[in-house]
Please model this.
Amino acid sequence: MYRSLMLVLLSLLVCSSVFAAETESSAVVMDEVVVTATRQTEELANIPANVTIVTQEEIARSAAVTVPEVLRGVPGVLVSDVYGSGRSYTVDLRGFGESSHQNTLVLVDGRRINQADLSSVDWSLIPKDRVERIEIVRGGRGSVLYGENATAGVINIITKAGSQMSTVTGAVLGGSYDTFQGDVSASGSTDNLSIALNGNYRTTDGYRDNSDTEIKDFGTNLDYTVSESLFLKLSGGFHDDESGFPGGLKKSELSAGTPRTSSTSPDDYADTEDWYLQGGFQLFLNETSYFEANIATRNRDWKAFSFFGTGNYDGATKTETFSFSPQLVLNQELLGCATNFVLGFDYEKGEQDIHNITDDPGFLWFADGKYELSRELYGYFAHAEIFLNEKLAVSGGVRKSRAEFNFKADAYYDYDGFTWTDNFSASKTLDESQYTLGLNYRLFNNSSVYASYTRSTRFPVLDEFFSYTYNSIDTELHEQTTDGFEAGLRMRYESGTAFSVNLFRLEAEDEIFYNPYNEVNIYGANDNLDGDTVRQGFELTVSQEFDSLLLTGSYTYRYAEIDGGRYNGKEIPNVPEHQWSLGAQKMFGKHVQLGINGTYVGERRFISDFNNDFDMLDDYFYVTSKLSYLLENGSFFVAVNNLLNEEYSEYGVLQLPIDTAEEAFYPSPKVNFVVGAEFRF
Model:
């Protein structure tokens, strides 16, 4: 595979250089800039990775109501709405399946929102109307610059700053399943201060019973110019939601006639309160070099209830996160070559207090456990990009990471009148290094060919060490390391044509996963895989822009399998081999805009089916359409989702224990719609 990548890269370089020489004089297109790939502003054409920028205009044209829905059409990104209510999503880059949320780093304005535990990324924290743009950097290069969780890639959600003109925006929408959403934003600036405020409220009954959700959000961004060289920034947000969890429907239940909209867990729910505050400064040393530091804190309270047949579970978790990230950026000549250099340090501490109560009268069992878990991450990194000439650039970086874990438990048990307590504490420290090397050859203005290699690391999160079944710590669990290779070509022309292709291969050792066949725990446990995992494939995109018509298309091929060990030769669950999308945006006159987008997702294994014993989860084709009437200061629109009314499930798991496992489906909504309006003053 390495030889194939190099041969493909050489072919792309030779052919593209010849073509570039013939077209360079006419292909003059302004290039986009990205901040996520190098932690500083950089032209997209200089990045040796597959990068997508979703602009504010593209977000506005989309039929999406949430940020993950915006990502659904991005090439190589697999999005699943677990409950069909727009509350809980999985977003997968490069085929990591059920562990995708631990291998994809999600940032908001550069601040990580992945938590220190197994909880998925909470995508509802940032309303779509607060987003300025989204940057997606695939591959593990972000591991050197950002550290933990970036093995598959980085998604950076950049929120709106204050505008030069005072502006107030209001939006409202309603639709199927008693969905209602209201949004109000205000922004403006003075000579030195700019401010942006946003408030959002959303409620829906959801497609299924007990999938209702009520969400409230508030956020603000402030930027203050102290002088020509010193800039201050402050941002914050508050999130509150109450959501029902309908659970999965077994294959036997659906075969017996259970409606797809029903719930087998009508009383399960979770309530969340989450707030964050981030501040920092940027001090310019000269026109292009600066020192920057950011400090952030986050507090998240989560309460949940679930019923499991003969008993019930009550859980409450309080998570506090603190982070500090200073960095020095130097842009200057070095030995006659333009050089961009970043040197920095990242520190994050996550503390989690957990209180779980299990009451199971059917088995005469009662347990009351209190746990204090903490993790401290330290990361020292350096990254340099050297332009050897106007076309050729080489980049590389290294990061030294350390994770320190501490665990404390105090549990009380009562089984048929026999009571006892269990108290313990434990700690563990892990160290690892990450590094990357990239080569980028610029063909003309904003077209380029590139190749890169990255070694990334993922440390276990807090509750991957912990077994709630046996109230114990698995101190044998250790870090996962991944070698990633990729090569690609991206080209854009003045004619409006854009094309890109990217080949990738990831080889992971000691991958951390939830093993349903664990020999100690019948419900499974977190393990390091005894074989390697290999993920490889390619991502292809093409677009053509006319005066009033934009056509887009993409195709992703990914194959993910296990090499060696107990699951040798088995496919990794929840990874479709084929995925493609088609889209069209058309303007009719000055006011009417019509968009239609379709995404195909191929068959994939049910989550936890590492033995590949069960049938595949069916493929599906998901189509959305949005018709807008544009005004000078607003718009009216109607959007239709699942336009073809397809019956499918985006998400499917095996219900454990494994010896009685059965496929469980999470049915997705049938055809549904929203109508809305937006006005700016």
